[in-house]
Design goal:
single chain; mainly beta; 13-stranded mixed sheet; globular; signal; Chondroadherin-like protein; Leu-rich_rpt
């Protein structure tokens, strides 16, 4: 044994790359500051920790670490990495720590982080990431810490963190975040701490934060927030709120009434001259007001009385009147807090509506321009025409909630560097040809909540980089045919909640790079056989909430990359043979819930098998489902609210469910003695012929597999965030 160990050690040493240091005893390899241009291909296979800091890789190619499958820690800091190719980390199923800080990564592709099913910490601090593609983190189901500090993020779209089911700390500090989608944090059920400090948020993003029911700490310091409005924060579990070093001038009395667990409120270094009694904040124990110009006059008496009544400790000192300057709040007596001839502080309650002076910075009248963060904003200014003369280096332009009604040709002159354009809720009926001319860097265009009913291809002339187009909640009755001819880089198209009645051939002509197509909440009854033919790279097709009466099998031909199909809430009553066969080789997530589905053919799922990771069949009317024994890769299966008749015909399903390491929610509705019981717990099957055969001592292939490869259990977060996930319970 000693000779064998020595021989193996010698072999491992021989495999150590020449410029590196290998510690075979601890399975560590150090290649620090070696000017390497490529990942060494002679790293010992059994290496667990690999330190490659300070090299010059530029690109991490697909399969770069396939030769080291036992890695648990990988450090790639300061390696001049600009691009992570799709599949770069494939094969690293044991990796728990990945550090990519201080590189030059600008974009995360959807598959860039594929294969990291066990990853717990991902550090992307100090890169150049401007906006995140939805789905980029969809494969990181075990991640608990995501560090995106010190990047160039300007906007967070809805569901951008989908798949991060166990994430506990999200670090977004030191970016230039200006706008958050209302559903940006909707897919983070386990999040406990959110760091949004040192950004460019001008208002408290209450709607987005309301999705974080379990978060206990929120950092919003160092943002130019001037006012906290009524019931602005509805976070049921929040205990620690940091709003220090902002621009706060006023806080509404019931600003925190919907955050009843709030324990500590940090308001240091703002512009507050006082506070009202904070209604509804019954759990508050400490308020920090150090560094504010507190006016300790009679106007502060209600707050002072509330502090004593609620037993809240306050930290802060008076700035005026002169007789009380420097006195701590806790030392004040009510008779000392006089008004006399003191002028009351100016009411800051209207300050959010008043435009800040732009000073010498070029900026349209009534708008706010931030030269440091390259932002321009004229939100909700009741403007009739789109303003001009924004700084030429503007990256994000927020024009939401203005009644423009039309976007004329050449509406945005001189904005060649503009990346994100927000025109939501602007009553727009017409986007004229040439409206976007000159926006050669535009990637994100948001036209949600307008009155658009048609679009011409010429409307997108001059914006060839446009990748994300949001047309949700407009007046389209059909997809604007040919409108995407000039958008070769279009990746994501949102047309949800319009009144589109069909998807016809030619509607998507030119959209050859489209990956995500969102058509939920329309009135689609028919999809032509060739309607999706131009979108050969399509990965997600969301058709929930339409009027389809059958699975559009013919239209699914020629979609070799389709991995997610949502047909929920369509009136599909019967499902015939082989309806998913055209996409059987790629489909991973299938949504068939809430359809009133009454019958599924025994061969409906022909072709589907190990690749399926999640299947949603809840809230339907069928009493049995086809044989799914070859669905060995399932991580989520939801059979809740399906009226199963637990007789001997259901025995094969009962046996299959028993072998799964899943909670599926299948419940008996009949016969009477089984009503309300879980299918796998019902005793009605014990009278069935063959019940005793194989029930005792039967080998469970799924559980054996899970036991031998525990890392597979951590993959549940790769699936969309709902339903029942893998569990021993």
């Amino acid at each position: 044994l000693l000779l064998l160990t020595a021989a193996l050690g010698a072999t491992a040493a021989a495999c150590c790359p020449a410029p590196c240091i290998c510690d075979n005893l601890r399975a560590h390899v150090l290649c620090l500051n070696r000017s390497l241009m490529a990942i060494p291909d002679t790293i010992p296979e059994l290496t667990k920790k690999l330190d490659l800091r300070g090299n010059s890789f530029m690109v991490i190619p697909a399969g770069a670490f396939l030769a080291t499958p036992y890695l648990t820690h990988l450090d790639l800091q300061r390696c001049k990495v600009e691009r992570l190719e799709e599949g770069a980390f494939r094969g690293l199923g044991r990796l728990v720590y990945l550090n990519l800080a201080s590189n030059n990564i600008a974009l995360l592709y959807q598959e860039s982080l594929d294969g990291l099913s066990s990853l717990q910490q991902l550090i992307l601090e100090g890169n150049r990431i401007e906006e995140i593609q939805p789905g980029a983190f969809g494969h990181l189901g075990s991640l608990t810490v995501l560090d995106l500090r010190a990047n160039a993020l300007v906007y967070l779209p809805d569901m951008v963190f989908q798949g991060l089911q166990v994430l506990r700390w999200l670090r977004l500090s030191h970016n230039v975040l200006h706008v958050l989608g209302s559903e940006a944090f909707a897919a983070l059920p386990a999040l406990r701490r959110l760091s949004l400090d040192h950004n460019e948020l001008q208002a408290l993003p209450g709607e987005a934060l309301a999705r974080l029911d379990g978060a206990t700490r929120l950092d919003l310091g160092h943002n130019p927030i001037t006012y906290v409005a009524e019931e602005a924060l509805a976070m049921a579990s929040l205990r620690h709120l940091f709003l220090d070093h902002a621009s706060l001038q006023d806080v509404a009395p019931d600003a925190f009434a919907r955050s009843p667990q709030l324990h500590m409120l940090d308001l240091r270094e703002n512009q507050l001259q006082g506070l009202p009694p904070l209604a509804g904040a019954g759990g508050l124990a400490r308020v920090s007001l150090d560094g504010n110009p507190l006016l300790c006059s009679c106007l502060l008496r209600p707050f002072h009385k509330w502090l004593a009544r609620a037993r809240v400790q306050a930290e802060g000192a008076c700035a005026a009147p002169p007789a009380l300057r420097g006195r701590s709040l806790n030392s004040l007596k009510l008779p000392e807090m006089r008004c006399g001839r003191l002028r009351p502080p100016p009411s800051p309650s209207t300050s959010p509506e008043q435009p800040r002076a732009a000073g010498s910075t070029q900026c349209p009248r009534g708008c706010v321009c931030s030269p440091d963060f390259h932002h321009g904003s004229c939100e909700n200014r009741d403007l009739q025409e789109i303003p001009r003369d924004f700084p030429g280096d503007t990256h994000l332009l927020d024009l939401r909630r203005n009644p423009f009604r039309t976007v004329p040709p050449d509406a945005f002159p001189g904005l060649k560097e503009l990346v994100s354009l927000h025109l939501q809720s602007c009553s727009i009926r017409v986007l004229h040809p040439g409206a976007l001319r000159g926006l050669e860097s535009l990637v994100y265009l948001y036209l949600t909540d307008n009155h658009l009913s048609t679009l011409a291809a010429a409307a997108f002339e001059g914006a060839p980089q446009l990748a994300y187009l949001d047309l949700d909640h407009n007046a389209f009755t059909r997809v604007p045919a040919g409108a995407f001819q000039l958008l070769p880089n279009l990746i994501s198209l949102h047309l949800q909640h319009n009144t589109i009645g069909e998807l016809a051939e030619g509607d998507l002509a030119g959209a050859r790079g489209l990956r995500w197509l969102y058509l939920a909440g329309n009135a689609i009854r028919h999809i032509a056989r060739a309607a999706l033919a131009p979108t050969k790279m399509l990965e997600k097709l969301q058709l929930e909430g339409n009027h389809l009466s059958e699975v559009p099998t013919a239209a699914l031909q020629g979609l070799p990359a389709l991995s997610e199909l949502k047909l929920s809430q369509n009136p599909i009553k019967h499902m015939g043979h082989s309806v998913f066969l055209p996409v059987a080789s790629s489909l991973q997530h299938l949504y068939l819930d809430n359809m009133g589905l009454e019958q599924i053919s025994p061969h409906a799922f022909t072709g589907l098998g190990p690749k399926i990771r999640s299947l949603y069949l809840e809230s339907n009317k069928m009493s049995n489902i086809p044989d799914m024994r070859n669905f060995t890769g399932l991580e989520i299966l939801n059979l809740q609210d399906v009226p199963f008749h637990c007789d001997c015909q259901l025995l094969p399903l009962r046996r299959w469910i028993d072998k799964l390491n899943l909670r599926v929610g299948a419940t008996c509705v009949s016969p009477a003695e089984a009503r309300g019981l879980k299918v796998k717990l019902s005793t009605t099957f014990q009278t069935c012929p063959g019940w005793g055969q194989g029930e005792a001592g039967e080998t469970n292939p799924n559980k054996t597999k899970a036991a031998s490869k525990p890392s597979k259990k951590k993959r549940s977060g790769k699936s969309p965030a709902r339903g029942f996930s893998k569990s021993r319970a």
